[in-house]
Write a structure and sequence with these properties.
The structure is a homodimer. By secondary structure, chain A is an alpha/beta fold. Chain A folds into three domains: about 5-85, Winged helix-like DNA-binding domain superfamily/Winged helix DNA-binding domain (Arc Repressor Mutant, subunit A); about 95-165 and about 270-295, D-Maltodextrin-Binding Protein, domain 2 (3-Layer(aba) Sandwich), CATH 3.40.190.10; about 170-270, D-Maltodextrin-Binding Protein, domain 2, CATH 3.40.190.10. Chain A contains nine helices and twelve strands. In chain A, the strands form three sheets. Chain A has a five-stranded mixed sheet, sandwiched between helices. In chain A, helix 5 links the parallel strand 3 and strand 4 (about 125-130). In chain A, helix 1 packs across helix 4 (about 65-90) and helix 2 (about 20-30) packs across helix 3 (about 35-45). The radius of gyration of chain A is 26 Å and the shape is elongated. At the A-B interface, helix 1 and helix 4 of A face helix 1 and helix 4 of B. The structure holds a DNA duplex.
Chain lengths: ~300, ~300
DNA sequence: CTATTTGATAACTCATAGTTATTATTTATT
DNA sequence: AATAAATAATAACTATGAGTTATCAAATAG
């Protein structure tokens, strides 16, 4: 109870902490510089803590100030989420959910999952966003995302990860390619072909898994192109820039320019996993991933 | 950024949510009832959320209101902790730590641990409190405690638990008792003796472990008294109310009125564990239990 | 049917957030 | 060295709105 510090002080403090410049911070806040200075001063007095060292044309955060910058940023974000959810609850909704997913999950996994879910829980608002693996991790850590769907094996310890789908790989060949389901026996037959693969930075663990396939086949592929979209892979394959390997769920049945051969005899599987922040207090989160884990089991 | 809701609103809201009575809440806040009513109204308008249903002489929380009560309570507590730690940082301290422990850990474990720690980290402020197992769990969950030392095997999933000391049990007998280290072979020899034991509500898992000892010895003890303090056990034993079993660390070497026989041949061990809340953001917490786990290993 | 308990409304006041004008100090620029 | 520019703090003013008192409306209890 103790303090008469208000959210205003906290917001002002964070603004100054951000660009370490009173006048510019004041501008961004649409108030005058002296007004801002006084509020900061007041916060320092109330708290009994010096927040900034003001000297020689530069302002820097004290140790306590830096600590407060980090903690209060989080706290404020938390508040906003709380208010957002309260609003949804007020409107008879159960809550909102921000979902991220790698493009390769949108082909058919995510849509099916969500359709089923929405039928049972029409009162949860979804916000869907395609993002790469690392952006998802980042946003999960900063509480800007509730659930991510990634192709990663490991995530930072603040996050929890649960595999929801293991799938085999498929070979992608130009439609006119000499190999077909019957004549294809081993990857060795493609020893000389250039390969078009997902960019390693898309997911190192995914990339390493693909490389293991080549290792097991006893050769290193000639990698001619890296991309991050399945559709560009197919375009390149179609125009004979090379051949490729993709997760089975990315198979595009409508594409008549390329053909797919499932590598079911190969032991490697790629895993689509669900990730979330264990500290996330989103009220619908628990129910939702209970559901998803139930469906995917 | 959006809202012009202030901490004042939140504090007022929580006050009303607490006793569901505007006039009484206003009194507790030392403001007038109309003032409070207006602030709550304003919060509802700003938020676009109805917080209370006011009718027939009673005020009740809406769904959204109840959600906000829970979340905002936490959030406010969080803020207070943050300010508290900032103050410590400002004074050149690294932080503060609130420790709880069951009495039976104070005999020699906790003091030694803390003395060693204080030598290396004089800049951490301690706050020590003897509490029973369940009170510690409760306070850890509500963020009123940073680390607990308990004799429990399991804790709620929000908490993490790490055993730091396993120790055998000791028999406690009056000094003049006919049994001694040499003549004692088995608990069976005390089949007819009344036992003075720790109250089961002190810790069911501790109690069950003691009961297992009797099970393994093939008899059920006659339990004559329950207490929660080792010293009262010793007093009762001294005056021939019965005999007892206690963890080895509770042995009081200065007590000449009773004698202790270590039950090292018995497989049961009692475990003193450290517990903390994984969500606790106390900045010194991590360093501290790294230290404690290091020492106790 | 009166008395009492409740929260909302209305009108007032005073504390203070935010304003403009200015100063002190340090650092570029000539 | 002298001047100009940049910065945050200080001082004095103003106007918004938090908190006040007085009152009302509704709903119960005796």
């Amino acid at each position: 109870m103790s303090y008469q510090i208000e959210l205003r002080h906290i917001k002002y403090f964070l603004a100054v902490a951000k660009d370490l410049h009173f006048r510019r911070a004041a501008e961004r806040l649409f108030i005058s510089q002296p007004g801002l200075s006084r509020q900061i001063k007041q916060m320092e007095d109330d708290l009994g803590v010096v927040l900034f060292e003001r000297h020689n044309r530069k302002v820097i955060l004290t140790k306590a100030g830096a600590y407060l910058r980090d903690e209060l940023t989080l706290n404020l974000k938390n508040l906003e989420h709380t208010f957002y959810h309260a609003k949804l609850l007020n409107n008879g909704k159960k809550g909102g959910l921000r979902l991220g997913y790698v493009g390769s999950a949108m082909q058919d996994i995510i849509p099916n999952l969500l359709l089923t879910f929405r039928k049972e829980h029409p009162d949860v608002i979804f916000n869907l966003k395609e993002m790469d693996n690392h952006k998802q991790i980042e946003d999960l850590l900063s509480y800007d995302l509730d659930i991510g769907f990634v192709r990663l094996d490991r995530v930072p310890k603040e996050l929890e990860i649960k595999p929801i789908l293991k799938e085999p790989f498929c070979l992608v060949l130009p439609y006119s390619h000499s190999l077909n389901k019957e004549s294809f026996k081993s990857l060795n037959q493609l020893k000389e072909a250039p390969f078009i693969l997902f960019d390693p930075k898309y997911s190192t663990s995914y990339f390493e898994k693909v490389m293991q396939i080549f290792d097991d086949s006893g050769f290193s592929p000639i990698v001619s192109h890296n991309t991050i979209h399945a559709s560009s892979i197919y375009k390149l394959v179609e125009h004979h820039f090379g051949v490729s390997i993709v997760p089975k769920s990315l198979v595009d049945h409508n594409n008549t320019k390329v053909k797919f051969i499932e590598l079911s005899h190969i032991k490697q599987r790629t895993t689509l996993s669900m990730v979330w922040n264990t500290q996330n207090r989103n009220p619908v989160l628990k129910g939702v991933f209970d559901f998803i884990l139930g469906v995917s089991r």
